[in-house]
Amino acid sequence: MTNPYTSKVAVITGGSRGIGYNVAKALVARGSKVVLGDLLDKEGEAAAKEFNDKAGKQVAVYLHTDVTKYKDLIALFALAEKAFGGVDIAILNAGIAGDAACGLFTPLDDRADMFIHEVNVGGVVKGNKVALLHMAKKGKGGVIINTASMAGFAAAPSISAYCATKHAVVGWTRSMVNLEAVANIRANAVCPYWCETDIIANPKDEVQRQFLQATPKTTMKYVVEAFLRCIEDTDLSGQALLVLPDGVHVQDQYIPPESCFTSEFLEKVPELAIAGVNLHKENLAQAVKLAKL
Ligand SMILES: NC(=O)c1ccc[n+]([C@@H]2O[C@H](COP(=O)([O-])OP(=O)(O)OC[C@H]3O[C@@H](n4cnc5c(N)ncnc54)[C@H](O)[C@@H]3O)[C@@H](O)[C@H]2O)c1
Asked: pLDDT exceeding 90 applies to what percent of the chain?
């Protein structure tokens, strides 16, 4: 079996600290090159320097990247191509919570209300589209991993807007299941439960502080393990991996009730699935041509 890490290049958004940094560190330790994109330049540059110094050669680069902007994401993936010859693994991990995480009682403000959606959902959607074009251009396939959350399944009134964004990331990622047949790209979502990072370091009120203090948490070790599993396990495609206090679990897919299926429909499904893959192959080829990346 070929090594899934050596000679591989991973683009990681939100790579300056926390989960993104730790995943980058694990990938570099296994022989991959990493391209980090984040808003936190000092931390991102320090991370790249740390990895390069330790390796004694260039294995990491950093670029200031706002994941809400196509321009920045296009530049980040172009850097992966320029510095290391392309991208094999795209990890769309940047995300925010904080004051925007609830959103129910804030002023009626078009821009402010959509901001968390632009970062947590927009950053994933736009990043996936740029990654897909790069991977398809090379024709070698690849791995896409999106950081969702346990909040992509569970409902939590104190972080309702955050839950909405992470449900969206789960739905988007699961819907990319046929990319494996279309372009040999496996897309999966990692969905951590609470994990000690800066994103949960400043609770917005006393109720949240007490909740965070009392709730069990998962560990960074398990979170990193989930990302590595998405890379190594070629059976995983369109899946969501929960990272719970007791480890990593693949979440069951939702199966619609029987009333959604008739025998005529079921007969037609295999034929439609093939037609859908062929249509997406044509659409992707056209998109690569148009994007000129
Ligand atoms: N820590 C947890 O409990 C937990 C649980 C579930 C999911 N997550 C998710 O994990 C991901 C990583 O979070 P973390 O826990 O490492 O927290 P973190 O705050 O340490 O890391 C988030 C990173 O994203 C970056 N970022 C934010 N907005 C950005 C933007 N517009 N463009 C580029 N970068 C941006 C931040 O600068 C930071 O480096 C997030 O998507 C978060 O929602 C975290």
From this structure: 94
**Residues 115-124 pLDDT 10s:** 999 999 999 9
Report the residue among 99, 165, 197 best suited for mutation to probe ligand 1: largest number of ligand atoms under 8 A from its CB: 197
What is the distance in A from the centroid of ligand 1 to the CA of 166? 12
> For the segment 178-187, what is each residue's pLDDT rounded down to a tens digit?
999 999 999 9
Whether the CB of 158 sits within 6 Å of ligand 1 = no
Considering only CA atoms, give the Rg of the chain. 19
SS3 for 39?
A: coil
The one-letter amino acid at 90: A
Q: Which CATH class name applies to 9-255?
A: alpha beta
Pairing of strands 240-244, 247-250: antiparallel
With cut-offs at 50, 70 and 90, classify the pLDDT of residue 189: very high
H helical segments located in 188-291: 206-214, 220-232, 263-291
Helices (H) and strands (E) counted in the chain, each on its own, are 10, 8
Contact 34, 27 (CB under 8 A): yes
Question: Edge to edge, what strands does the sheet with 60-64 contain?
Answer: 60-64, 33-38, 9-13, 89-92, 142-147, 185-192, 240-244, 247-250
pLDDT band at 100 (very low <50, low <70, confident <90, very high): confident
**Can you give the residue ranges of every domain in the chain?**
9-255
